[in-house]
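Translate sequence into structure tokens.
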Amino acid sequence: MPKSGDSQHQVQDAQDVKKAKERVFSATFSGRDVTISDFPLPDASSHESFPLPSTQDERPDAQKKHPKSYQRLQTKLNSLDITPFLDLMLSVAHERDPAKIIERASTGYKGTHVTMGVFWLRPTPKMADIIPPHPLSESMLKLVAYSGIGDSTPSAWKHAQGTFDLVPITEPIFASCLNGIPSIGSSPEDWDRPAWAIQEGYQAYSSFPVMYNDEFLGIISTFYDRPMVGPFAQLHSMHQKMHKIFADTVARALVNAVAFEEIQKLRGELEFENELLRRAVDEKRLDDNLIGDSDSLAHVMEQIGVVSPTDASVLILGESGTGKELLAGAIHSRSSRSQNAFVRVNCSAIPHELFESEFFGHVKGSFTGAIRDRVGRFQMADGGTLFLDEVGEIPLELQGKLLRVLQEGTFEPVGDERSRKVNVRIVAATNKDLTKEVAAGRFRQDLYFRLSVFPINVPPLRDRRNDIPLLARHFIHLAATRMNITPPRLKPHHVEKLQEYDWPGNVRELQNVVERAVIMSHSGTMEFYIQDNSHATPPTEMNVHAYSATIPAAAPPASAPPPQDIITEVEWIAMQQVNIQQALEATNWRVQGHGGAAELLGIKPTTLRSRIQKLGIKKP
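Result follows.
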């Protein structure tokens, strides 16, 4: 005996419920598949998830045609619980990671008879953290996520110009979305179903614009396995309201997340700039004036005057402590880039594994510890000058990338595939003979030629002894100003003795000796303690004395030290501090090992570390 119409619908309803309970949704985002179980459909007595409160059915004939199935549906509609839907919207609204917003959006397509949900975004530069920008972003949409069941994925659906992985905004199912109006097809008669929709068995669809403040971001579409008319019209109406609210929530969350990412990026750049400023303030160095009137320094300044107006790369060669950084600053200040950044990089102070990140920056998550984007030195110096101090310390494996930036002006931050273009002038400095480094295979010849377009040789202080009095007076006034004391007098026999020393540490050593003398000065008198660092043997003390009072003619007993050699405990601690500081600077702050500061001072490394900590000595 054939089954009645009501019995047939009961069987059909039971099959639909069983099919929905077994449904599994796959969300695809940036090549990563995430499987998310669908919310199970409840029994007739339980609550439906997501849809909004019901309204009166606009087709009363449906109740006459299928009275029992209509009553069951009406019972469900009248006992809805929208709490899960609200929880989902709250979680999306609070999310600050655009990728996670897309992932969570894939769980919002669900509803009775919804078999597929798809999310497309416009591939604009603003959404670059989510999808790569596309030149046709004004007219195309990029598939970013989908979930549902079917024989094929949306990336395989075809349209006139390709697949729905990249689809025109003018596609019929998006008809009015660009104007902020949802596009609805409740039954096959309401839309011209394409081949893929027929193949997948999609009977109805809804497309909702993802918009914020009239800015069109993308589209969320849902597809149904049956016509959403008759007894399902009310359900379809509630789904439209639900998905429209959800699309608006996703739009706000995406805009906020992108803005948050930009704020974090700008914050990182600001912190980086502040770090550079703090380093500049903390550095013990000369002011912007170059002190001296010797012929050798005049020749250097003449070369600087010639090369500064150009954009040619400059290689400053000279011993440690000769003021190469000051000369680099003078080149920048006399160039057309003087209003832009002058960024300093001490290549010898950067760990080898961090060279690439330091120069080119990195993106968040590119390696362990990369908790946010960081701007590299090249990007910081864009439009200005980048000073590479101790350029001979750059690892060989990184020299090729540095050469590419110098030649092409492009680079990629660590973990980022997008190229960045910069306009940077390079001024490099080294105390090494780079021609020997090239011959030994430790420095690329092509990079050497690129850096040494205009080499400048800085003379050591022993070759410009006439500048010593000017430099000494300058350092005395700087130190006295910092300590808020009256500058001591520099007397002729001071100058004579200072000029007798060869100054292997050059201007930096002279500055340290003068500063120590100012610290230890009493009543306007000074005493210089010059430590000979020109040999590997234990240092020799060379004393240069000057007193305002006359030294008594009577000599003290041979067993007692001369009265002028007796110093206070405070003076002794100050001398220790300066002595250790000089030893550390002479060994590039290496404490132990062959040629280290401990060996130079003739003490154990542990003893030296203890004194460094006790005296509060810190690397600048």
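Note: Confidence is low (pLDDT under 50) at residues 1-5, 17-60, 282-288, 535-565.
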